[in-house]
Specification:
- Residues 1-157 form the CMP/dCMP-type deaminase domain.
- It holds the Pfam family dCMP_cyt_deam_1.
- Keywords: Coiled coil, Hydrolase.
- It is built from five helices and seven strands.
- By secondary structure, it is of the alpha+beta class.
- The chain has one domain (2-175): 3-Layer(aba) Sandwich (Cytidine Deaminase, domain 2).
- Strands 1, 2, 3, 4, 5, 6 and 7 form a seven-stranded mixed beta sheet that branches.
Length: 178
């Protein structure tokens, strides 16, 4: 994990702003996310979280919401395609780029809640589903989030490892496991 310099932050501002625009398309009731994959001044993929139009799924019917699960617990129950997944799918299937095209790329992810961009107080990634997809289905070098102090970048393997650790901690806390 590393904090981006002011110069690095300025260089990604347009991508961060695009991710914020994308999250406005989200139909998730919990949080709205936008993600942009970029490299060498070009957008390789972009997406937002949404519920696919299949089998009558809607966010209000999500089993995870019904069970009031948070902090990554039960994400396998979530109907939504996550923004990171959506951006990778956009890159691979809509833009017909290859996994190799993403080598050395970055992804910026922006979250909003209740219509306001959410800047993490303490960033604790826990979505192993997205971290696994980034790690196994792309060669994205770093994933960038915004917190109250600026921007934080995680390497793809580092994001996966931290997400597993944080999800494990969430499970232990939820169920009182030592």
């Amino acid at each position: 994990m590393r904090h981006l310099s002011e110069e690095e932050a300025a260089a990604i501002k347009a991508y961060r702003d695009r991710a914020e625009e994308l999250l406005k398309n989200s139909d998730c009731f919990e949080s709205n996310y936008g993600a942009v994959i970029f490299k060498d001044g070009k957008v390789l993929g972009e997406g937002y979280n949404y519920v696919p139009e299949i089998k009558g799924y809607t966010c209000d019917k999500c089993p995870r919401r019904k069970q009031d699960l948070h902090n990554g617990i039960g994400l396998e129950l979530c109907y939504s395609v996550h923004a990171e997944e959506s951006a990778i799918n956009n890159m691979l299937f809509d833009k017909k780029l290859s996994v190799e095209d993403s080598e050395g790329a970055s992804m910026v992810v922006v979250r909003s809640k209740d219509g306001k961009v959410f800047k993490f107080e303490e960033l604790k990634p826990y979505c192993t589903r997205c971290a696994e997809k980034i790690y196994t289905q792309s060669k994205i070098k770093e994933i960038i989030y915004e917190d109250k102090k600026g921007f934080i970048a995680f390497g793809n393997e580092e994001l996966f490892d931290i997400s597993v650790k944080n999800l494990h901690s969430s499970w232990k806390e939820k169920f009182g496991i030592r």
